[in-house]
Write a structure and sequence with these properties.
Length: 70
Amino acid sequence: RLQVSRDSLFGTTVTDTTETDTAAQFKPPVLGTTYFFRVRANGGSGSSEYSTVVSFYVAVPKSERVQMVP
């Protein structure tokens, strides 16, 4: 199971899947946003605990940054 959220406590999720694939996508990522993800294994004997939460930041390309003019 893969969960992706903008909230480190996973109160709401962007992606919450039970896919058995080893890759997943979510669209569209919001530029300038930090996302958090965690995974857990599901099998015949039940589910594991969730992994350690990992975060990643979707940067805003330099060409799209707003410049402040005094």
